[in-house]
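Reviewer 2 asked us to include a model.

Predict the structure of this chain.
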Amino acid sequence: MIGAAEIVPGVSGGTIALIVGVYGHLIDGAGHLARGVALIVADGLRGRGLARASAHFRSVRWGVVLPIGVGMLAAILVGAKLLAPLLEEHPVATRAVFAGLIAASLVVPIRMVGARWRAREIGIALVAAAITFALTGLPPAGEANPSLFVVAIAAAFAVCALVLPGVSGSFLLLTVGMYAPTLAAVNDRNLGYLGAFIVGAMLGLGVFVSGLQWLLANHHRVTLVIMTGLMLGSLRALWPWQGSSNDLLAPSGDVVLVAALFLGGAALVTALIIIEHRLVARRLLAADIESDPVPDAAGHAPHRG
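Predicted model (structure tokens):
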């Protein structure tokens, strides 16, 4: 589901991770992986060995992260073949379904914020929503034939969407004219392009995840408030009727069908939320989002929930 979301412009993989309850695990695992790789380089050059890097690698919840990674890779490979043509042939219907998914999923960060929202927090969420609304309204750039350096830089920014609900990496690529070249690289197995993209993504994760972990640990509530605003603003990119320059158009055609698809997407997310709530009630699933930037002394991530 996360991999499929990353293929669709306007849909955030981080949002899907929040919905299905694996967001905390991904943040934690990405942070440890990025620090482990950085320490391999830093400590290796200084002759300090690999003990610190190994501690971070052992703290990754591989039983969660690896299946998610395999599923994401498979979904991206399949989605590049299936979802891209679907978006081109049925853009209104496809956006309607994903708009319903995102609209219903707003309850996830709202519930995680907890107690009653204060006026200042509502204002912060609205500012974040306005910024995302403006960004998703930018017209797409012309298709580019980017250098590998530009590919890496774009990937470093786009990968932030994987850990930031409401922000779509595919949409960021679309606005700079690199969405179609990236899909083509996946379909054509262009290893040079994909290698540059992966290197840039790892660099982006290393910098961005550390900052997000710190925010979740030290400003948990306001971070979730901002996430809520980002998700709300991202709905602008999923308005079913849009022009070629992302301008919003009035409803037309089979409006009843579009509304039904929107409600169907919302119903799917609502069902997932209800299931998650029942699992939490039965203590089968952790109810909180936590980050763990420091490896456990025993070499394993501490148990939570």
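DSSP finds 15 helices and no strands in the chain. The chain has one domain: 2-281. We have added this to the supplementary material.
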